[in-house]
Description:
single chain; mainly alpha; Tetracycline Repressor, domain 2; 10 helices
Amino acid sequence: MARTRSQKFPQIQRTILKRAAAVFAERGYSTSSMADLTRATKLSRGALYHYFSSKEAILSGILEDHVSLFLERIEATLAVAADPAQQLRQVTRAIVALNTQCPQEQTLLLNELNQLSSPVRRKVEALERRILDLLSELLERVDTGGRITAGNRRVHTMIFLGIVNYTFAWYDPKGRVSPEEYAELAVDVFLHGFIRSPAPNSRVAPARRATPARTNGVARAASEER
Length: 226
């Protein structure tokens, strides 16, 4: 006879995902074992398999839930504000707040997505594309100078996400700048620089190339783009 599910089944699943995210983010998915997860969740191996069929199923649950929540927050925010600039400000606040609340999940999304099997990974990637589409459309509404083109549309979107979506790597939400203040700083830098920067066809003297300092791979990545 199949084991019946208790009313607390979804709540216990969420708890498992949250604790497993901390384990995977700290140890890495590939080097984490089911024993690590049983210790973190305080469940036996059999009980853990009652809620998830495998370690991959746990990672899948973490990433699907996180990206789905990310998408829901953006959609809900866009449904409230009408002015594009205000929408951008509210969306930035929502993203910073979510990443502050879920740093481990964001770490896994950026570092461990390729650990999922192709069908599961494609499902998560489809959600990510929907998020990118919404953000690209929002930036096009903000753009009053015609700077966004079909060729650079995604680039602008990734610049924006680069400002607000990698805070897990360096930002301390308990530090001197609160998440709300950081969101305001981020959107002001992006929005005001976006409005005031010269158009792509303007005659601007090329910047003098500086010798790259230690940038944790940023200089290398930039050189690869050129």
